[in-house]
Amino acid sequence: MFIKENFKMALDSIFANKMRSFLTMLGIIIGIASVIAILAVGNGAAKEITGTFSDLGATTINLTANDSDDSNAALEQEDLVVLKDSIEEIQYISPNQQISGTASTEMDSRQAVVSYGTPDLQYLSQTMSSNLIHGRYFNQIDFDENNSVVVIDTDGAEALFGRTDVVGETLSVNITQTRLDLRIVGVVEGSFADMQGAFDADQIPLFMAMPQSTVGQQVPQLAGMNSVIIEVEDTEQIEPISNQIVRLLELRNDAVGENIYNARNFLQALDQVNNVLSLFINFIAAVAGIALLVGGIGVMNIMLVSVTERTREIGTRKALGATTKTILIQFLMEAVILSLIGGMIGLTLGILLSNVIASALNIVPIYTLGSVGLVLAFSTAVGVFFGIYPARKAAKLTPIDALRFE
Amino acid sequence: MIEITDIEKIYRLGGETIKALDKVTLSIKEGEFTSIMGPSGSGKSTLMNILGLLDRFDNGKYMLNGTDVTELSDDQLAGVRNKEIGFVFQSFNLMARMNVLENVMLPLVYAKVPADERKKRATEALEKVGLGDRLYHLTNEISGGQKQRVAIARSIVNRPSVLMADEPTGNLDSKTTEDIMRIFQDLNDEGTTIVMVTHEPEMAAYTKRIVHFRDGQITEDETVTPKQLSKAEVD
Ligand SMILES: Nc1ncnc2c1ncn2[C@@H]1O[C@H](COP(=O)(O)OP(=O)(O)OP(=O)(O)O)[C@@H](O)[C@H]1O
Ligand SMILES: [Mg+2]
């Protein structure tokens, strides 16, 4: 029997009962559409998230020391120096801590966000503001000598002094009931400028950046560094460098295997996101699987009806010389084409659906050749699996029984 | 060509057994036009189905063109039906949703004849039964008599050695019946062997040999001079 004739015959009988065929395909259509939509949206979301993480911190390592039962475990300034000296891929290393306080001059006072770290703080991609307008950033000498120097932002300068060029002026800041008197060495661009709306104009907080050593000396409870940001040059090396950092700290502080130091990078965060995402994908895939199963049973049911309806046709075909195999292939092909058409409609619908969902979520859906192949393979499999029983039933009829059927 | 010896067919319904064929022995030679006559329930269709290899029998022997058919598998039987036997059914048994030409090509499809050859031969067969101008009509767009002529075209398209017709005019009026019988006579004149079941003597009168049947047995086997229908009347 020729494929072409079988194909035409299958299409004829599918289109002879359009409504019935469509209802039969519905399960498959829904199943395939959801699979396609999930894969496209899921892949799009994964790509989006990966992109976001890479943009924000592909070269950033977040180093923490867990000092719950051993206060010595906190990171020392010496640790940072050693890390930077011994691992050449490390570009910048600095805590990036924030605490709020009140900044005041004789004229006025204002809420302040105090950011403190090493001079590398200015280079961290996460730092709030580092575009110098006047003066300089605090430097290594300031850090080593615990100098009482500060960098403030233009908004703060305007608020407290009525002008921006305030290098050399002094101000004081109250942090956790300690008063620090500080000399301004530089002015950076307004930090909260693009967050207007969030604050009333006269309440925009002042941004300050100063050496961690100075803060630690004057406010002892802020001396410990439990969290440090490290920037490396190249995202490729981020995982081995993270491991190297932990190993080095453990050796240096005699804490091998104690799980005190933790160097996290975007890859781990990404892993977590992907875990959640794949959990979600699996769940929907299970739902789609059930829809496909129901669709398959629908195909089987309709094929059984079709075999019964067409018993005399089968008898006539056998009288004219159709063999068991020929009839089997005819009905199997019909089941497969039925599910394949369902699959195609599902594919189209899935693409439409994923575009709607994706644009609502503001991501770009990703279609792979693999997912189209998956649809074809899956629909064929459903057709074969659920079509084989009715097809065998048709093929095994004896010609006389089939012809006499009423 | 057809040699059956002591053929028995027994139907079992519950505890009851019905002997539909009781030691039937019959020989049909090439070129014959035989009718099988008998009252309803006498076993005519049962015999035809066995002769046509659509049904199996319980006892006896059937040699078709020198082959013992009891030794053939189901698929081999399908092959023999395809090549050696043409069927004309009382209820036409055409494929709905297929046009006239496609219906006639169907046996050639199963015979794996290439597509262009199929079309050529099917068209020839349809011209022979006077339907050369209806090739692309659907089967529900033609009359009963035309349907039966399509069925006849389908039965001869594979050039079988025997044509079997079970009450081929049972669903047709007398005028159309004459048309069909004329086609049979023409085919027979060209050498086609025909076996036809009927319970009407008027139909049997068109054939060359009448086998009378009763209660599953042959009661009489007569050679007759067929009533001739003039060829000129074919439309
Ligand atoms: N499938 C079957 N199961 C049981 N009995 C059957 C079956 N087919 C036929 N018979 C019986 O076999 C006998 C012969 O039937 P058959 O159909 O051959 O008769 P027939 O001569 O063709 O009659 P008719 O002229 O009415 O078509 C009948 O008694 C019938 O009841
Ligand atoms: Mg009968």
Bound molecules: adenosine-5'-triphosphate, magnesium ion
- Strand percentage of chain A, roughly? 15-25%
Using only C-alpha atoms, the radius of gyration of chain A works out to 35 Å
CATH superfamily of chain B: P-loop containing nucleotide triphosphate hydrolases
- Low-confidence segments of chain A, given as residue ranges, are none
Broad structural category of chain A: alpha+beta
Largest sheet, strands/sense/barrel of chain B: 6 strands, mixed
User: How many DSSP H or I helices of chain B?
Assistant: 7
Secondary-structure element series of chain A: HHEHEEEEHEHEEEHEHEHHHHH
Largest interface: A-B, 25 and 26 residues
Helix/strand/pairing class of chain B, anyone? alpha/beta
Number of helices of chain A: 12
**Domains of chain B, number:** 1
Question: Could you estimate the helical fraction of the residues of chain B in percent?
Answer: 25-40%
How many domain units of chain A? Answer: 2
Q: What is the mean pLDDT of chain A?
A: 86
| Biggest sheet: strand arrangement of chain A | 3-4-9-6-8-7
* CATH architectural label of chain B: 3-Layer(aba) Sandwich
User: What is the subunit arrangement here?
Assistant: heterodimer
